[in-house]
Amino acid sequence: MGSRSNIHLAYIAGFLDGDGSLMLQIKKRKDGNKSKFRFMPTICFYQDTRHEKNLYWIRDVLKIGYLSKRNDGMTELRINGYKQVRDILQSLSPHIKFKKIQADALKKACDILLKTELKLLNKIQLTKIVDLILVIQSENYVTKKKKTKSELCQILNLTP
Fold it and tell me: Domains of the chain by range and CATH?
């Protein structure tokens, strides 16, 4: 990778540290799939819509993501997918400073989810993912109520 690419990745990592978030959500499935839930890892960058061109630049450099305008004057660039999120975090990792703990936890969760099909995840793997979600949540600034470990375990049917 050339020095120009390295500079771009350092800039994007700085943007993530300041105006981004890392999430691992449990989404309920409504499509009749055997599994009643799915995991959704997300890298999200936020910017005032007046300056959204920066988000287009990030999308062009990373070659992935979709943009959406919110009703509050903000634009988001979202990147989802186990492999995509893991690979991007791997590229940005040497430059991430403030969100290092979340990035490492999200990478670990994506590794687990890439290695084993969702319906084949065992109790130990699911419990590890719950623990990683809690690490990410504890490091994030969120306005919504965070789910507790027992709530997450209940969603995943890990309660006795």
Answer: 3-155 (3.10.28.10)
Which pLDDT tens digit goes with each residue over 2-46?
566 889 999 999 999 999 999 999 988 776 656 678 999 999 999
Tens digit of pLDDT for each residue in 137-153?
988 776 667 888 888 98
pTM above 0.70, yes or no: yes
66 alpha carbon, distance to own chain's centre? 14
38 touches 27 (CB < 8 A):
yes
Q: 18 near 10, Cβ under 8 Å?
A: no
